[in-house]
Amino acid sequence: MPSARILIVEDERQIVDTLRDLFEQNGYETEVALNKQVAVTILQERKMDLAIISTMVQEIPGVEILHEVRKIIPNIPIIVMSNQKSKRLELSFLKAGANIFVVKPLESIFILRTIENLLKACLTPSVTKKTRAYSKNKK
């Protein structure tokens, strides 16, 4: 698989550094946005293959950022990461359009496999259609 470009939308510097190092060591290109405006600018100027968004970025709800990302690139796979394990929070993000919801701290092998599987699913048209249909039925 060619190198995918991942947008990391997170304002905790340690998490940003950890994720960027992990992804780049495994052949992914990364862009980092510490706030919503930078995320929007990156998405408007560069092709991104996947986005990882924190549930809160500089006091802005991640769901708001998720909606902005979807406006710019409607079919981009989105992983939302959270500090809290909450079914209600998870369901609200999945209904808003996230593909996957994960709880921090992220396990390296798990997040790499999740990204790989999500990118493969998005490159396979028949799987993508099934995923969209499943998401619509969940709402």
UniProtKB/TrEMBL annotation:
CDD domains: REC. GO terms for biological process: phosphorelay signal transduction system. It comes from the Bacteria. Residues 5-119 form the Response regulatory domain. PROSITE patterns: RESPONSE_REGULATORY (PS50110). It holds the Pfam family Response_reg. Keywords: Phosphoprotein. InterPro entries: Bact_response_regulator, CheY-like_superfamily, Sig_transdc_resp-reg_receiver. SUPFAM superfamilies: CheY-like. This is Response regulatory domain-containing protein. It comes from Candidatus Brocadia sapporoensis.
